[in-house]
Amino acid sequence: MTLSPSFGNNPDLDSWLQFHRDGRITVYSGKVELGQKLTTALTVIVAEELDVDPGRITVLTADTDTSPNEGYTAGSNSLESSGIGLRQASAKARRALMEKASEHLEEPVENLFVTDGQIEVSTTKKYVTYWDLIGDKHFKITITDDVLPKSPDQYHLIGNPVPAVGLEALVTGTMTYVHDMEFPDMAHARVIRPPSYHAQIQDLNDTEVLTMPGVIEVIRDGSFLSVVCEREEQATWAASKLAGETVWDESKELNSKDIFDQLKNNPRQSLPVVKGVAKESLVQSFRLPENSSKTISASYQRPYHMHGSIGPSAAIALYDAQVLKVWTHSQGVFPLRLALADVLALAEDKIRVVHVPGAGCYGHNGADDVALDAALTARAVPGRPIMLKWERADEHAWEPFGSAMQMELKASLDDKGHVIFWNHETYSDTHMSRPSVHRENSRLLAAWHLQTPRPAPPVKPSLGYHTGIHRNADPIYDFPDRRVVKHLVQDLPLRVSALRSLGAYANVFAIESFMDELAHAIGTDPLEFRLAHLSDKRARAVLEAATTKANMGFISNDDRQGRGIAVSRYKNSKCYAAVVIDLIVDDYGAIQLVQAVIAADAGQIVDPDGLRNQLEGGLIQSASWTLKEQVNFDEKGIVSLDWESYPILTFAEVPKIETILIDHQDCPFLGSGEATQGPTAAAIGNAIFDSVGLRLRRIPFTQERVRDAAAKV
Amino acid sequence: MPKVSLNVNGNVHHLEVDEKTPLIYVLRNDLGLKGTKLGCGLEQCGACKVIVDGKAEFSCNTPVVSFERSSITTIEGIGTPEKLHVIQQAFVTECAGQCGYCIPGIIVATKALLDVNPNPDDEMICEALSDNLCRCGTHGQILKAVKRASKEMSL
Q1: CB of A594 closer than 8 Å to CB of A655
Q2: Which pLDDT band, with edges at 50, 70 and 90, does A3 fall under?
Q3: Residues forming beta bridges with residue A297, ordered by sequence position
Q4: How far apart are CA A181 and CA A387, in angstroms?
Q5: B120 touches chain A (CB under 8 A)
Q6: B46 has a chain A CB within 8 A of its CB
Q7: Core-most of A265, A545, A551, A622, by most CB within 10 Å?
Q8: pLDDT of A85-111, one tens digit each?
Q9: CATH 3.40.50.620 fits B3-75, yes or no
Q10: d(CA B20, CA B8)
């Protein structure tokens, strides 16, 4: 058995589990709840392994003072690290408790069984409980790999629907988000951002603002500007007044030329990708195979997309007696602490960072940035907790976007219609700009604007397995000869970082659109064409399950209705997902999604409702990106500043969704939260082609784009 | 500062606040009703919806003083964790919530709809939720929950 990577930093059992005398169990995880129902899944895993009622378990949120350091909650890794970690910790705890019970009851372990934490002797009914044995005490043992967790045939909880943790609080408005916290003497703050990325304060007149009711302090450090007030509405009024009374030097503009021209023409670093891993070696040129009977090429494009959290980022900071405490919805309390210590020149042990839920983030949004805003503000008003919230326009303009991408594909087929050569090149900016320690640089936004600015560090290509730009660039098909290249393009205009699925969304969009194009080019059915190149049984199974289900469903007589399919395996190593989309393109070029089918294989299913929510939520979000979304900007800055200028999918626009879950209780669980992003985009494009014979290769597929494509035919 | 009187969830409050203050800040910060969420401040996303005299309305932008003669119901006035309203129970049953930030506004809009029309069709539900945004993509579960609630309320 391999131990979870999370134990590297935290091998003590007591850093994961604590049993209390009153029968409760506290679980410490370094991962955080983001609405993905991680808390529910971890609760089920621990309850299963210990044989206790899930109601006894509380999963504590990440806190640099109390939690194991598990880095970021990202990359669909949480169940595979924290989940496995807690399973192994629970198995170790259970074994230790059984041994203690055996001694206490003077019976061999084999004669003991556990019901809801009560360890009984099967013959004599003598018993002792977990809480008697270890309640409020420490195990003082290290987690080792000598204890095997339960085998799946012993499960009674895992894989069955369980009530999600905290839903009652969520539907009654009683769940506490960081935005909802209250402290005695708390003050409210807002930040006044420059009108564009590179603008600097030339002149500031805060005399009038300082006389406004409730204004406590105007904080300025270089071009970082915030205002603290007694009441929240006062902070919004003071901030808009200050914005009007600040003169900005806006001479340095954004390069607002077509982003796809920039992607192709800016300086870049190119690396070959072999078996999903980028190599620091020269990119080899290629020659088409001599026996190719047909070679086809196509380019696909994806614009900048927003995370678009419904709740603008917020944080609370308290600076008192040289100690900083921050409450945040960041995905990584430990890395954020490092980054804050770096910018604020504070020792790490003088900062405590506590996770509190925020609105869904879907990757690296403004959560970390607003924490620095709050910290800088709180330092100027020591002793008072400062609640700093971004406004909607702050979030839209300043969050790090999902990178624009261009994918260029080429394939050669032999005379039997088999792909014998495949070439995939992706041009993009980085997809990973999470904060860390960068000395004279910083990835936290406010650091760029300080009197002594710390601009963003230079971007380096990530080399790992399916990271960033080359995530899912290597297709899952059995092509005998393939060449995959990532191009990390420099000097691109907008701030970017991790958005749900990173490069996988657009790489899979390109691969699965191109597979469809190849199938049509040789007059083959797109499903048959895929299956002819796909030996991975689990990938075939999801593809077949989804298409079979779709065929059984509603068949339309509307000849404008089209169907598209697509499949992928996230990072070629996580959840398998196939998506079928049925849609109508009307006479005016407007697209209406009718129905969608998902078939997914996430290995061992822990919480089927949570899994379904992640897959279907991913499909809807991806459909929204694909049909409607694009961050617009000009030389002065971002112009997509609200939900009208950056529309997202609404209730009337979502399709009916059917989801088939293929359960493998004997397999490891596979991260699923990002699995449907890519296939959904391609299935939509393929369905549009099936409907009206137009191949759309540039996202978003707006009505205007459909009309333009039709006009070119 | 002038006094403003507000009837919220059946209780009348007399508050000393600037009458220009958008309603949401008074609900959240003066009355401690944090279930109403601030999403955009622009009346575009629906996270801040409350029921005003039977109709779902945005609370993020309109000054508190204009609600003085109205009866306001917030998410807290609909049900509690111990005593869920039928609509809230339906949302729990259908697992209709991921991050949950948009959910109070959506339940408020649903309540206003079902109070007037207990048996809405899909189109009416989508119309009632047309200015409620959800970014997690929980739409399918939410629509199922609204229909479940409608069925149970009309039994």
Answers
A1: yes
A2: confident
A3: A410
A4: 8
A5: no
A6: no
A7: A622
A8: 899 999 999 999 999 999 999 999 999
A9: no
A10: 18
Q: Which helix (H) or strand (E) holds A189?
A: strand A187-191
Nearest to A620 among B41, B100, B139 (CB): B139
Interchain contact, A621 vs B125, CB within 8 Å: no
pLDDT over 70, % of chain A: 99
Q: Cα separation of A62 and A182, whole Å?
A: 19
Mean pLDDT of A269-295: 96
| Interface membership of A619 toward B (CB under 8 Å) | yes
ipTM of the complex: 0.98
State whether CATH 3.90.1150.10 applies to domain A178-250+310-398.
no
Going by pLDDT thresholds of 50, 70 and 90, the confidence category of residue A554 is low
Q: Which residues contact residue A121 at a Cβ distance below 8 angstroms, ignoring those fewer than 6 apart?
A: A105, A107, A111, A112, A127
Dump pLDDT digits (tens) for A172-227.
Answer: 999 999 999 999 999 999 999 999 989 999 999 999 999 999 999 999 999 999 99
- Which residues have C-beta within 8 Å of that of residue B46, sequence separation ≥ 6? B39, B58, B102, B105, B106, B109, B129, B131, B132, B133
Q: Please state which CATH class domain A405-432+467-712 belongs to.
A: alpha beta
pLDDT in tens, A610-657: 999 999 999 999 999 999 999 999 999 999 999 999 999 999 999 999
User: Which tens digit of pLDDT belongs to each residue from B128-143?
Assistant: 999 999 999 999 999 9
Q: Which residues of A touch B80 (CB under 8 A)?
A: 172, 174
A-B contacts at Cβ under 8 angstroms: 182
pLDDT score of A60 more than 70: yes
Buried b (16+ CB within 10 A) or exposed e, A78-101: bbbbbbbbbbbbbbbbbbbbbebb
* CATH code for residues A5-158: 3.30.365.10
Specify the pLDDT at position A185: 97
- Pick from A167, A643, A656: CB nearest B44: A643
In chain B, the DSSP E strands lie at 3-8, 11-16, 50-52, 55-57, 71-73
Q: How far is CA A643 from CA A189, A362, A495, B130, B134, in A?
A: 23, 17, 20, 13, 12
The answer to whether A230 and A187 are in contact (CB under 8 A) is yes
Taking an 8 Å cut-off on Cβ atoms, the answer to whether B41 and A657 are in contact is no
B75 contacts in A (CB within 8 Å)?
172-173
| B95: nearest CB among A179, A613, A644 | A613
Which chain A residues touch B129 with a CB distance below 8 Å?
650-651
- How far off is chain B from A358, nearest CA to CA, in Å? 8
> Given B38, B92, B126, which is nearest A171 (Cβ)?
B92
Summarised one tens digit per residue, pLDDT across range A489-502 is 999 999 999 999 99
